[in-house]
Specification:
The complex is a heterodimer of chains A (about 325) and B (about 750).
Chain A: E1 5-8, H1 12-21, E2 25-28, H2 34-39, E3 47-50, E4 59-62, E5 65-69, H3 74-79, H4 81-86, H5 88-95, H6 100-103, H7 108-113, H8 119-122, H9 164-170, E6 174-179, E7 182-187, E8 210-216, E9 224-231, E10 239-250, E11 253-262, E12 269-270, H10 272-278, H11 285-295, H12 308-324
Parallel strand pairs in A: 1-3, 2-3
Antiparallel strand pairs in A: 4-5, 5-8, 6-7, 6-8, 9-10, 10-11, 11-12
Helix pairs in contact in A: 5-9, 10-11, 11-12
Chain B: H1 20-25, E1 40-46, E2 52-58, H2 60-64, E3 68-73, E4 106-107, E5 113-119, H3 122-129, E6 133-138, E7 163-165, E8 176-184, E9 196-202, E10 206-211, H4 216-227, E11 234-237, H5 253-265, E12 269-272, E13 288-296, E14 302-314, H6 326-329, E15 335-345, H7 356-376, H8 380-386, H9 404-415, E16 428-429, E17 432-444, E18 450-456, E19 462-466, H10 475-487, E20 494-498, H11 514-537, E21 557-559, E22 563-566, E23 573-575, H12 576-582, E24 588-594, E25 604-616, E26 621-632, H13 639-658, E27 664-665, E28 670-671, E29 689-694, H14 718-730, H15 741-746
Parallel strand pairs in B: 1-12, 10-11, 14-15, 19-20, 26-29
Antiparallel strand pairs in B: 1-5, 2-4, 2-6, 3-5, 7-15, 8-13, 9-10, 9-12, 13-14, 16-17, 17-25, 18-19, 18-24, 21-22, 22-23, 25-26, 27-28
Helix pairs in contact in B: 7-14, 10-11, 13-14
The chains are: A alpha+beta (about 325), B alpha+beta (about 750).
Chain lengths: ~325, ~750
């Protein structure tokens, strides 16, 4: 661990200025991931700008949208009455993540910003293009049981580890950011990116842009929801595959549906084709299976993670069955 | 049979763990908790290659870093007077050479220490450690057991020669047979408390250490050998250990390095391994590939059993364990062949991990028994009963005690075995498949030597001293229970002092021997103490002198908290305070050595584990609903801690069966999940209700308290019970641990 300076700010502008001024500075919120990365020598910011005092903890309704402050704690969001009533999928996804202790520290913005848990990324003695561009991808021909089956590149096959983000991408959320050039709205599915040739870039934020809130539009998707996380133990493990499913069910018919997968790609993986297929169709296992087949069209295994090619569609079917009570 | 269970039987009270309060309030001091003025901190810098030589090592930046007192490498390390020969009987039966850090430029495994940095604070030593840079002359390493099977060899030493009883590979001619391969990956002990040592020297030739060891005397001997000092110049303390599971059964190179470092800087030195170093420097359950050939007659009588095992050792030592030995005695079988081989790999030397070889071996044997039971269309319990060994088939000796049949029956009743369907995949709960499985565990029952000192004070307080320590099972509680029962003293009048070479010598805490050994020593010293009290009380003119002038015996007296009274007339009594006053004694004390003798019996503890679980076939999720563990461990001395120990074994077995696997990327020779985030052990949510049942029948020959061992059999047999239950649920036989979703879905 290297020595670093520490600065506490209390306004969004102050936070942005501090980062723009100093190219070696980095924000810290809950710190549940960054501290680990600093201990491991994966990241070594020379200045930490503590944003925990910013007034960004509120969870509120604005018109027909639910707006969640970037510094709201994961546990606070998961337990919030409004969230549980209107967007229960988000609450379920948050509860599936990490441990109670971590959820009490981790923030919404920090959750989105967490880095992959790829072991090659975490060990500075190993090759990793995300940590050190040009050194190669250690996982590509290494131990890749946890790795991506969608949208990977030969530069990086890591996955985004968040559970919360899987629900947020499914719910058509928007990320509100504030930066040196003013405020910007980023649709959640455009927030994280695929690795391509730049695996070092996890997302589409510009330098100095701070997440201030996440906005979830009103929907009728709060009755039939399920977040199914398949993992190596019952709690405190990252997803092998997870599925966020929210269905607007009218009788047996799927009027509307949102589906996203975790543990399968460098970004939260929205399943638009499967959604499109299911809309207007009866909720049945046969239809769920067909939707799952569509979802898996471009999937590719890298060896140890080949089992995800079976696990992912089965998890999707299972999540839909549980969400709808059908099939 | 029910009345024989401890729940209904004598075992006087379910007494609480006597050190429980100290542990939960944090006042129990573990190795690294000890504080001394001027303490400095050490940190080990590990090699980044798995094999080769250190070409150059640059320590300048580290030496200049704030607070740094020394950087010890092979270039400047004080030369140790001697190496141990590996002949110390308290150490693993290893061939080869114990590794000494910094004795040469040679690297045998990834993360082998190449430097010890010493600084005034922990943070500073951590920082300075990152500044040490080395260049290597790399050599081709090998960390893959499968790729090295061609190098398998018979270990040095007599215990591991090939064994044949009857016809070699006799299973081949059986009417019904199976041949299968089973794989156990590297599992890591991962105790809560990391490996840690605090060492300080007084002058040039006296050293005291607090360290995480399961045997203070063995560590004392190792330090004595390394530094060529008389034993009495070395004090080793380890009163409390935060779990070890076998990791503390030898002296590790880091401990010797710390003692060396403390001498070099002339200050108390504290060295705590980082969690990541716990995966690379202090042993593990070795990777083992096994083959079982098992054959029976059509009516289910075993004809032949062949058990081959090949496990890894390190590139510099031979580590061995009894992986195949259970196959020689567990079942009545005329033709048995076992072969055990080891393969050197560029990984640190393994060390026994709970249930050591037997846990690995029983996974293969008890899975194979289940497989053959299916071929025979026989209930697995019935199959085992048909092949029950009524005497030891390995040597023909009678058992000193064996209540394995009782374990089968108790467990089968408690789990609801009658609900098990023979046909896999036929028992369902919604989308989940239900399965039942069982597995047998066994481990040798031994009694070693221990010396216990007992001191009775005027107020009736009894102090017991022995150098044995407690890695968690509740040794002090067990000692208290034995003494309380014999002396008629309440638990709170008894204090156990343990875990130091300054105390009378006791055994290592390992191999499930401590209750049988130390419990018996407590028994013996208490009996002797009672006779001494009787002699004092019955002296001419004393309180309870006998009319007929015969010498008063303990049997004539009732012993209680306040003193002794005549058995025939309770009003004839004397308090301990009066007794000591009359005899002008401050305390009655007695030290007694106690040990077992060679018996014309064969002695083993037994366990049978029953598991009910559910599998979600589409996603490969496994949820264990219920575990019932039954044990024949002789007399149960301390019911509550014994039950806790059995539960812990079940949890360890669940981890072994479903999660634990140290993954090494063989391209680099490095583990990639050497942290507790990626190396999974069970969390609370993975653990179902675990019911523990004890037969609780005294072993009449092994020792005076009738106890056998418990620590190992708590885990041995759990993993095959789970694997067999998974098969019963799904029809999928997973022969490679751990049983994870990928294996279930690909099977």
């Amino acid at each position: 661990m290297i020595n670093f300076n520490y600065l506490r700010v209390s306004t969004t502008k102050g936070a942005v200025d501090a980062i723009v001024r100093d190219s070696a500075a980095q924000w810290i919120a809950g710190g549940t991931n960054l501290i680990d990365l600093m201990k491991k020598g994966v990241m070594s910011p020379q200045k930490l700008v503590d944003i925990n005092n910013l007034p960004l903890k509120e969870i509120k309704k604005e018109g027909n949208k639910l707006v969640i402050g970037a510094l709201a704690l994961n546990s606070a969001v998961a337990d919030n009455e409004l969230v549980r009533k209107e967007q229960p999928l988000l609450s379920l996804a948050l509860q599936a993540g990490a441990s109670a202790q971590l959820r009490n520290m981790a923030t919404v913005g920090g959750n989105m910003m967490q880095r992959t848990r790829c072991p090659y990324f975490y060990n500075p003695d190993m090759p990793c293009n995300k940590r050190e561009p040009g050194t190669g991808c250690g996982a590509l021909k290494g131990f890749n049981r946890m790795h991506a089956i969608f949208g990977a590149s030969d530069k990086c096959i890591a996955v985004h580890p968040s559970d919360m983000s899987i629900a947020l991408v499914a719910l058509d959320s928007t990320v509100l950011v504030s930066g040196p050039k003013g405020d910007r709205r980023i649709p959640f599915q455009n927030f994280h990116r695929l690795p391509g040739d730049l695996p070092q870039k996890d997302n589409t934020l510009e330098r100095g842009e701070l997440i201030v809130a996440v906005e979830i539009p009103d929907n009728k998707l709060n009755k039939n929801v399920h977040y199914l996380k398949v993992r190596d133990r019952a709690s405190y493990a990252f997803a092998l595959v997870s599925v966020a499913a929210a269905v607007d069910l009218q009788g047996d018919t799927i009027k509307d549906v949102r589906l996203a997968m975790g543990g399968v790609a460098h970004k939260p993986w929205r399943l638009m084709e499967a959604e499109l297929f299911l809309k207007g169709k009866p909720a049945s296992e046969a239809n769920f299976r067909e939707a799952a087949a569509l979802a898996m069209k471009d999937a590719k295994g890298y060896g140890h993670n080949n089992f995800k090619l079976k696990l992912a569609p089965n998890t999707l079917v299972e999540a839909l069955k549980t969400a709808t009570g059908k099939g | 049979m029910k009345q024989d269970l401890f729940f209904d039987k004598k075992i006087p009270d379910r007494i609480n763990r006597v050190d429980g309060r100290a542990k939960v309030t944090g006042s129990a001091a573990y190795a690294a908790d000890h504080k001394m003025q001027n303490t400095v901190y050490g940190f080990l810098v590990g090699s980044t290659v798995a094999k080769g030589r250190i070409k150059s090592i640059d320590t300048k930046a580290a030496e200049r870093a704030p607070g740094v007192l020394a950087v010890i490498t092979h270039l400047n390390a004080p030369k140790l007077p001697s190496y141990t020969t590996g002949k110390d009987p308290s150490q693993p039966p290893t061939g080869g050479h114990p590794l000494r850090f910094f004795s040469s430029d040679e690297v045998f495994y990834y993360d082998q220490a190449i430097a010890l940095v010493i600084a005034d604070t922990y943070e500073r030593v951590l920082h300075a450690s990152k500044l040490v840079k080395a260049q290597y002359e790399k050599a081709v390493h090998q960390t893959d057991l499968d790729a090295s099977l061609g190098k398998a060899k018979v270990p040095t030493g007599p215990r591991f020669e090939d064994y044949t009883r009857g016809e070699k590979d006799g299973y081949k001619s059986a009417a019904v047979k199976i041949e299968q391969e089973y794989y156990q990956p590297i599992d890591v002990h991962n105790p809560m408390e990391p490996a840690a040592i605090m060492a300080f020297w007084e002058g040039q030739d006296k050293v005291t250490v607090y360290t995480k060891t399961q045997g203070v005397q063995a560590t004392q001997k190792s330090i004595s050998d390394a530094f060529k000092l008389p034993l009495e110049n070395i004090t080793v303390n380890a009163e409390h250990i935060g779990g070890a599971f076998g990791m503390g059964l030898r002296t590790w190179p880091y401990e010797i390095a710390a003692v060396m470092g403390a001498k070099k800087v002339g200050k108390p030195l504290k060295l705590v391994l980082h969690r990541e170093q716990m995966f690379t420097n202090v042993g593990y359950r070795p990777a083992t590939t096994q083959k079982i050939g098992l054959g029976a007659t059509t009516d289910g009588k075993l004809v032949g059993l062949t058990h081959d095992a090949t496990a890894n050792t390190s590139a510099y030592e031979e580590f061995t364990e009894a992986t195949v030995n259970m196959s020689r005695f567990l079942y009545a079988c005329p033709n048995v062949t076992t072969r055990y081989r080891i393969v050197p790999l560029n990984i640190v030397t393994p060390i026994w991990m709970r249930g050591p070889g037997e846990a690995t071996g029983s996974f293969a044997l008890e899975s194979a028994m289940d497989e053959l039971a299916y071929q025979l269309k026989l209930d697995p319990v019935e199959f085992r009963l048909r092949n029950h060994a009524d005497s030891d088939p390995e040597n023909g000796l009678p058992w000193s005690s064996k209540f394995l049949k009782e374990c089968y029956q108790l467990g089968a009743d408690a789990i609801g075995w009658k609900d098990r369907k023979l046909q896999p995949g036929t028992s369902k709960d919604g989308d989940w498949l239900i399965g039942y499985g069982m597995g047998t565990g066994s481990f040798g029952a031994f009694r070693g030597a221990a010396t216990v000192k007992a001191m009775l004070h005027p107020d009736g307080k009894l102090i017991l001293q022995c150098s044995v320590n407690d890695m968690g099972p509740g040794t002090a509680t067990m000692m208290t229970a034995v003494a309380s029962d014999l002396m008629g003293l309440p638990v709170n009048k008894i204090t156990v002092q343990m875990g130091s070479t300054l105390l009378p010598p006791g055994p290592m805490q390992g191999g499930s021997t401590v209750t049988a050994t130390v419990g018996s020593a407590v028994h013996d010293v208490c009996l002797a103490l009672k006779e001494q009290i009787a002699t004092l009380a019955g002296k001419e003119g004393a309180a309870i002198s006998k009319a007929n002038a015969q010498q008063l015996k303990a049997a004539d007296l009732v012993f209680s908290e306040t003193g002794v009274a005549s058995k025939t007339d309770a009003s004839v009594r004397v308090s301990y305070s009066d007794l000591l006053k009359q005899n002008n004694l401050p305390v009655i004390e007695l030290t007694k050595e106690s040990k077992g003798t060679k018996l014309p019996y064969s002695s083993y503890s037994y366990s049978v584990h029953f598991v009910k679980l559910r599998v979600h076939p589409a996603t490969g999720r496994i949820k264990i609903d219920h575990v019932v563990s039954c044990a024949d461990a002789g007399t149960i001395v301390s019911a509550k801690t014994a039950e806790g120990q059995m539960m812990g074994g079940a949890v360890g077995g669940i981890g072994m069966a479903l999660m634990e696997d140290l993954v090494i990327d063989h391209r680099f020779g490095r583990p990639i999940n050497n942290n507790l985030g990626d190396y999974h052990v069970p969390v609370n949510a993975d653990i179902p209700s675990v019911d523990v049942l004890f037969v609780n029948k005294k072993d009449p020959y092994l020792n005076p308290i009738g106890a056998k061992g418990l620590g190992e059999i708590a885990l041995v047999g759990v993993a095959p019970a789970i694997a067999n239950a998974v098969f019963n649920a799904t029809g999928k036989r997973i022969r490679s641990l751990p049983i994870t979703q990928d294996k279930l879905l690909e099977a």
